[in-house]
Amino acid sequence: MSRSWDTMDSFEAFLDAGGIVEVDDAMPDEYRKAVFAFIEMHANSELMGGLTERDWIPKTPGLRHKMSVLAKTQDEIGHGHLLYMVAADMGIKTRTRMLEDLFAGQSRFHNVFHYQAKTWGDQVAIAFLVDAAALASQQAVFKNCSYGPYRRILKRIIAEEGFHMRLGEDRMMRIAQGTAKQRALFQDALDRWFWPALQLFGPDSKPDDKLLRWHIKSERNEVLRDRWVQKFVPLLHSYSFTVPAPDLSFDDDTGRWDVGPIDWEPLKATLAQGGPDSARRIAEASDNWKRTAWVRDALAAPA
Ligand SMILES: [Fe+2]
Ligand SMILES: [Fe+2]
């Protein structure tokens, strides 16, 4: 049964008491738009991440790795499909419209997918650092998410992302114990991917962040980012890799790592579709969409 709220105050009280909003509830417009935009960006990111992964299927060394890249590509594209369905059900844009906006460069996806994975080392760094960052963000949403359909889909996505993170760990450990050349390959990738992965969490949350107030996010960006730093800096050190942060410091009193000032300009560039690989990524995805138009036309044609 559809529910409605007379005022924003009563809606927020419902959310604060742990209420879960369902798709046919008469939720406030502002909430609908904010949650939709968040899920749309998540869906776009899964799709663009899946395409990054797909690029590596032919280039991946060895059958064992190739099978895992194949499985991961299917997972990410599957996550995209699930999220586009949840987003489309909110009645703001159709699934096709969301895809068209993405391929026209008019909607956002995560900063990390605006970069190119150049070597196998980059693939390892992405699985190790980026999937872990994405998983931490998604877990923080799942923990307290007030929008029921998104929360239910996240449960499955998180289970699969957990495998991606483990896969990244496994590959990183193999490369860390490998030859000097393999270690150099990973260090080189780490130099490229450390900062983009850290920036995946975004700049510090604004004090009036609506996604926090409405129980979509459960933790502030800076808290999640710092937790990632405290986990990954010592982990990378333990395998004798260098963290590419010239101002990195350790506070003996608090036992915490500080990466120093963060340059947010690269993140801003990706938000404006001006990342190092944005143009190529969007153009390729768009070409693919155009090339497959005949399938959509055939399906839409009367029998
Ligand atoms: Fe995913
Ligand atoms: Fe993933």
Describe it:
- It is built from 12 helices and 2 strands, in the order αααααααααββααα.
- Strand 1 and strand 2 form a beta hairpin.
- With 303 residues, the chain is an all-alpha fold.
- It has a single domain (8-282), classed as Ferritin (Up-down Bundle).
- Helix 5 (120-142) packs antiparallel against helix 6 (148-176), helix 5 (120-142) runs parallel beside helix 7 (180-199) and helix 5 (120-142) runs antiparallel to helix 9 (221-238).
- The protein starts with 7 loop residues before the first helix and ends with a helix.
- Residues 46, 75-76, 79, 157, 161 line the site of one fe (ii) ion.
**CATH fold name:** Ferritin
User: CATH homologous superfamily name?
Assistant: Ferritin, core subunit, four-helix bundle
User: What does the largest sheet look like?
Assistant: 2 strands, antiparallel
Q: Which architecture name does CATH use?
A: Up-down Bundle
The N- to C-terminal Cα distance equals 37 Å
N-to-C order of helices and strands = HHHHHHHHHEEHHH
Q: Mean pLDDT, nearest integer?
A: 95
Small molecules in complex = fe (ii) ion
How many strands in all? 2
- How are the strands of the largest sheet arranged? 1-2
Proportion in β-strands = under 5%
Supply the helix-strand structural class. mainly alpha
> What is the rounded Rg?
20 Å
Question: What is the overall shape?
Answer: globular
Structurally, the number of domains stands at 1
In CATH's first tier, which class applies? Mainly Alpha
Low-confidence parts, pLDDT < 50 over ≥5 residues? Answer: none
Helix content: 55-70%
